[in-house]
Every structure is written in structure tokens, then in C-alpha cells.
Amino acid sequence: MLILGAGFAGLELATRLSETLADEVHTTLIDRNEAFSFGFSKLDVLFGRKPVSDILLRYGDISREGVEFRRERVQSIDPERRHVTTDAGSYDADILVVALGAAYDFAATPGFAGGGVEYYSVAGAERMRDALSDFHSGTILIGILGQPFKCPPAPFEGALLLHDHFVQRGIRDAVEIRVAGPMAAPVPITPEMSRTILDALAERGIEYIPKQDLVALDTDAKEVQLAGGGAIPYDLFVGIPVHRAPDVVEQAGLTVNGWVPVEKTILATRFPDVYAVGDITALPMAKAGVFAEAAARVVADDIAARLHGDELERPYEGAGTCYLEFGDGMVGMVEANFLGGPKPTARLVGPSRELAADKVTFASTRRARWFGS
Ligand SMILES: Cc1cc2nc3c(=O)[nH]c(=O)nc-3n(C[C@H](O)[C@H](O)[C@H](O)COP(=O)(O)OP(=O)(O)OC[C@H]3O[C@@H](n4cnc5c(N)ncnc54)[C@H](O)[C@@H]3O)c2cc1C
Prior knowledge:
- With 373 residues, this protein is an alpha/beta fold.
- The protein has two domains: 172 residues, FAD/NAD(P)-binding domain, CATH 3.50.50.60; 138 residues, FAD/NAD(P)-binding domain (3-Layer(bba) Sandwich).
- It contains ten helices and 22 strands.
- The chain has a five-stranded parallel sheet, with helices on one face. Strands 13-12-11-17 form a four-stranded parallel sheet.
- A hairpin with a 2-residue loop joins strand 20 and strand 21.
- The relative contact order is 0.16.
């Protein structure tokens, strides 16, 4: 059993296989990095709540029966033969799971790499933290550069937390915060949640500019150009980068229109014994860790059912619960189900301070489960 990628999906899959099939299945888990970090921990780095060293969960700490972690970079995937090469060797898998997540395409937005900042990567969050400390007045524009992107509320969390940041520094009046993106509303599948987010933004004097296709940065004029003509000015541009499948997955012939199609109830690709899970799939749903993790559990259960000649009991529904920071210590909880019914559903609970504690528990239970710490 070979799992490519040790993010939310790969970590949960390896853990569940160890719990249920350690005697029967040997799992090799591959990732190019030496450590995992939760998506939301980038906000901790950005706002100086934690140093990078505190958010890294080292793969070397994984100690699960039947699971072997290898730090290698995947260089090619042959899904027909389930043959994988890395910078350190090659593998022939009986069952292959591709969980390599979404990559960022900075070059897709001319001017962005050199002229903007971002908090969607750990290194980017560190750079943006430093850029913020030098920022004393002017307009910060958070621009959503393409769809789909990870964690749909994250651009708005960023805006709400920026508000707190400048209030604490006593210079909120000198800073304008705006968010612009292609969506008609912050979270289009749920008008109720969009309304709550828009209200929270408005209370803090933050504007959302909907239906904007941001195509390039003019870094001399300090404005972002729009697809239909026109431009939005900024002093500091914060981009939510264009997302796409990693090159190695595209080159493998696994993608259609940029993402990997899968059978939605069991996450199987069109290649026998090759699954794809997490952000990399083309499923019509939000890209978030909770869904990647839930999908991984289904794949583990499907593998167990097939090995034992049983039926899979609970197919994938694209359901999960995730958290949204509103600032000032308040956290909301989103309960979503994308695939289980005739249409997607999502419900916002809170925000409240109790849910902030739940979010901490969410992270600590994963840390204990995956890394034993
Ligand atoms: C700011 C921010 C906030 C977020 N907040 C939340 C939240 O509150 N709740 C939530 O559920 N989700 C949140 N997310 C989204 C969440 O982080 C992702 O959806 C989730 O990580 C997807 O899991 P995955 O396993 O599919 O991919 P990933 O976690 O991205 O894992 C993919 C792995 O593949 C590895 N990889 C890629 N290419 C190669 C290669 N060639 N060779 C070897 N390894 C490779 C990568 O190193 C990575 O470890 C947030 C994301 C961001 C950026």
C-alpha cells in the first residue's frame, strides 16, 4: 500500500489502516516535507501568535504499526502500473492512493510573486507577518485569484483578524481593509453564512467586492487589473493564489480539467486500485482538511471491505465540521454535507468563545492521533 502525500488525507488514511489492517497491510507514506502543519496554523504564524517551530508536527514522530514514513519527492506516477518514482527510488504498489493536495500557481497571476504577499503557505505567512509590521497606513486588499481555493472562509478570516491586528496596534483608522473575489457572496452555497460573514465585515468597516476576476498586478501603479477592464488600487496586496493539481499528477494523466475525477462514494479513480483523496479531487465541494480526512476514512474502510470480501458500510458523503475565526477570540463552526443529499447543505453555529476551545481540541486530537503527541 503506497500513499503519496502526508497531509490531512494521507495522515488519516495511514492511521486508520494501521488501526484496522496493520497485520495485513504494510503502508508506505511518502511526503517531500519533514513536517505537517494545519492550514489554520498559518494564521497563528501570520499574526505572531506562534513561531513556526511551534506549528510543525514532525513526520519522524509517527509511530504506527504497519506504517513507514519516507521523506521523498514524488517525481512520476504511472497509474496503470501503479509504479511511482521519487528522488530516492521507485515503488510498485498493490494499492496506490494519491493525496498530494492542491499546489499554488503563483505564475498564473503576473506580478503577484514579486509584488504581493500571501498566507496560504508557512513561508508566505512568515513573510506577510514581517510585511505587516512595516505597514502603518493605507489600503490592504485581499484578492481571491481563482476558484476553487482551500478553506472558503479563510480569506474572510484573514480580513477579520487583520482588523484585530490593527486595532491592537492602535492604527485601525489609518488602514482600509477590502476583500475582492469572483464569488457573488463570501460562501455561495450558504446565504445564511454569507450574510453572517458580510455583517461581521461591515461591523468592522471591511468591504467585500463581489464578482471580480483579478488577473494581474500592476506593481508600479499598485493596482490589480480586472478581467473586464478596470482596476482596484492597493498599498499591500494579499493574494489567495490560484490553486491547481501538482505537476506530477497532471503529467500522470490523472487529471481532467485540472483535478482528479473520482467515483464520489469510494474515491476510486478510473485506474484499478488507484484512489485519490483530499484537495486533489474534482469533487464539487469545498477543499478543506476535514473533508480530506473523512474521505481517507472511507478509502481505508473500502480497502478493508475489499480485502475481507465485505460491502463498504458507509460511503463518502462529503460531510464535515470546520471552524471559522471571527476575531476577538470568537469562533464559528460550519457543519457541511456536500454529496449526501440532493444539494449541498451548510450550517453556521456561533460564533462563540466555547467554539474557540473546540477548535483547539480539534487540532490536539489530530496531533495525538497522527503523531502520538
Ligand atoms: C490559511 C488556511 C486555513 C485553513 N483552515 C482550515 C480549517 O480551518 N479547516 C479545514 O478543514 N481546512 C482548512 N484549510 C484547508 C486544509 O489545510 C486543506 O484543505 C487540507 O490540508 C487538504 O488536505 P490534503 O491531504 O488533501 O492535502 P495537503 O494537506 O495539502 O497534503 C498534501 C501533501 O502532499 C505533499 N506533496 C505535494 N507534492 C508532493 C510531491 N511531489 N512529493 C511528495 N510530497 C508531495 C505536500 O508536502 C503535502 O504534505 C486551511 C488552509 C489554509 C491555507
